[in-house]
């Protein structure tokens, strides 16, 4: 950029990263093209007098609308006519930022898992004693209708608390794998049947499981895959308090032969962009039901399979979770040979 911070050159790598053609950016302010925040550029000259360069990581919206992360540095550059301009160097650090976020999330999940296991064990034994005693009293005492109703409430709430403890333990315990060749559309059909007969389903809910062409298999533990589908599906139903359609689908991964893609789509309230990064953290539930660990358990199970989970959401229109399972190890080996 020249002394007025207008772009003089824009190399091929810059075009590929930003998506902006050379003719579109030449002569324009670098601050505008590179979408630099005002606090970064406000005292740029003074900052470059104190240091050789200045660096920033920032979100960037490409010409095609995609959002990426840039790692950018700027330094002063002597120009051929003796004036001083600016040299901007930057790279796409989106994948690196995602790895950093994943690593931080894994640390938090591990710490919360240890805490959850300790708390759950401390609560479970006295809860079992209390629940058992209440059941015996319920059977042996002569109670009025009001007393019987209160007793039933206590027993029901005890069972709900026990369900929460089971979620803690399922989240905290190391997962055991019993891999088998699993028919993914069959799992979706079974889960849909269970959901249609569960208390999670409202009168205005519709569950669809479209049947795609061909077979879709994954090498995985059946119970764990069922838990992934169940947690994502119940989350979708809870997001549709006023009703809507929940769609469960499975398809081969077009980018990795032998892989599979599981998709769960709802027409619920959606998730704000600022909240998307934290949805897999423990106790982030927002529907007033459950333990707040459902999506955290999904994330842990997906990570255990070296799979990937992607979330796309529009507030007021709904959310789509997409889990991509890698090809089975033996299939990868056979292709390599």
Structure description:
The model is unreliable at 331-337 (pLDDT under 50). Helices cover 46% and strands 22% of the residues. Helix 6 packs antiparallel against helix 7. It has 3 domains: 12-92, Beta-Lactamase (2-Layer Sandwich), CATH 3.30.450.20; 97-172, Orthogonal Bundle (Helix Hairpins); 180-336, Histidine kinase-like ATPase, C-terminal domain (Heat Shock Protein 90, 2-Layer Sandwich), CATH 3.30.565. The chain is α+β, with helices and mostly antiparallel strands. The strands form 3 sheets. The protein has a 5-stranded mixed beta sheet, covered by helices on one side. The two termini are 51 Å apart.
Give the distance, in angstroms, between the N- and C-terminal Cα atoms: 51 Å
What top-tier CATH class of the largest domain fits best? Answer: Alpha Beta
The overall average pLDDT, rounded, is: 83
Strand content: 15-25%
How many helices in DSSP terms? 12
Give the helix/strand layout.
Layout: H1 12-18, H2 22-25, H3 30-33, H4 38-41, H5 44-50, E1 53-61, E2 67-78, E3 84-92, H6 94-140, H7 145-172, E4 180-183, H8 184-196, E5 205-208, E6 217-220, H9 222-239, E7 244-252, E8 260-266, H10 273-276, H11 294-304, E9 308-314, E10 318-325, H12 329-336
Parallel strand pairs: 5-7
Antiparallel strand pairs: 1-2, 2-3, 4-6, 7-8, 8-10, 9-10
Helix pairs in contact: 6-7, 8-9, 9-11
